[in-house]
Amino acid sequence: MKSLHDQLRQKLKLCYEHIEVRKMEEAYANLVHIYEMPQKDNLRLLRTLIYPSDDMKPLVKISPKKLHILDIIKDTVADILHLPNDDDVKVERFNVDVLKGKTVLFFISDLDVSEEELGILGKIYKESRTNEKEFEYEIVWLPVVDQMTKESEQKFKALQYKMSWYTLLHPSMLDAVSKRFIREYLGFVKKQVIVAVNPVGKETSRDAYHLMLIWGNAAYPFTRERVDMLWKKETWKPDFLLASVLPEFNKWAAQPNTYVCFFGGEDIEWIRRFTASIKEQAPKTGTKIELVYIGKPNAKLAVDKIIKTIVSEKIAHTLPNVTTVTYFWTRLESMLYTRTQYSHKNVDNDKIINQVMAVLGFGSRHEGWASIGKPGTTQIVQGKGDHIVASISKSEFAAHSKDHGFVGAITKFIGTYQGNCGFHCNRVEFPSVPGAGVPSRVTCTDCQRPMDKYILYKCCTG
Which pairs count as long-range contacts for 399-403, CB under 8 Å and 24+ apart, including other chains? Predict the structure, then answer.
């Protein structure tokens, strides 16, 4: 009898497990159906994806409060412990109804989000709040976390307090079905994404994060039509690269016969020699050049040290801070990501793609490089910094500059160095883009020969 009872209990347990699995499958299919089917508004999707129960408000918005001296003392203690202080902020709770009738940007990530990335997105979001009628969108952070620990609770709260947009009250507001949907249907793996959904709950873009990095709020409402229109207007010129990251750029662009030279590298001695040579040679042609150091990707400490040296010695201009340096390079990667989708079948012949890859290739090397262009025009040339200096130092350069323009003269002479560059080993890392083409032919920026193709798996965390 006991054996029979145990067998029945085991079968009952299996039945319950089967029922639970069936419920989960039905709930997942229902969420997919809601996401794909036309809706009258976005509320049904929001209520299904984000905590479907009505017993609590699942959204939070946090804003700073004015501090008194006692609050500042508390802040100091909190900073030492790396914890946010609840007394310093205003916390408001909301139902998902607050998002009705708006474009919603689902900012999807785990808990490994850098301060630089949050700072960049925060700046764009803050700018949109100055004209909310024109940019009717809201960001909602959806943190995808499978198991919370004491450490991850603190990490979540610290991140939450750095966001000025809507966040979930807690990662548990996303149930297992919603997390499965985000991973399997929306394709989230590790790197943060922003999925844009319009006021009637229809997805308009899974690349909204990249679009915001490239064009800021001008990418609104994040539709394919909007992206196509923006790309059709773009050409490879200094304005596209620098206007959004360099406060002085528009002032320089208004000055006649002024060129901008942005350069990178991590050897301060080379930077001193390079900038001194440009300052010496450019005036001989009647040309004014503004020098701007843009650092290099994934070298925050080294770049920060170089920026401080450049500023203290007044060697050149720099981007405002390390966050802006990160923004410059991340934005280039976003250009490459979205432009390949836009060009698709014409990737090999796309000038913007080829030039973006060239700059990213320069950024991956240790030695110095530079790009010189005239604002408002497509006159732009780039190469090894020493090749550019050698070109403008030629005795006949001034005469050629008068006939062909400053950039045209550099282009003429730099080719002789690129063809005889000796041993070198360059690389261009091309991000994997689902559904987008990868160039079948990439030209080396040093020798102008076709580069060999390899497959690279990379992990840059920790």
Answer: 401/285, 401/287, 402/285
**β 193-197/59-64 pair status:** unpaired
Looking at residues 33-62, what average pLDDT do you find? 90
Output phi, psi for 108, to 5 deg. -105, 125
For residue 193, how many other CB atoms are within 10 A of its CB?
20
Tokens 């170089």 — which residue? 306
Nearest to 43 by CA among 99, 94, 104: 99
pTM of structure: 0.84
CB 322 within 8 A of CB 300: yes
Closest to 444 in 3D by CA, of 423, 427, 420: 427
Taking Cα atoms as reference points, which of 52, 54, 74 lies closest to residue 65?
74
Confidence of residue 77 (pLDDT cuts 50, 70, 90): very low
Q: List phi, psi (to 5°) of 77.
A: -65, -45
Q: How do residues 115-156 score in pLDDT, each as one tens digit?
A: 889 999 999 999 999 887 789 899 999 999 999 999 999 999
Q: Which helix (H) or strand (E) holds 340?
A: helix 322-343
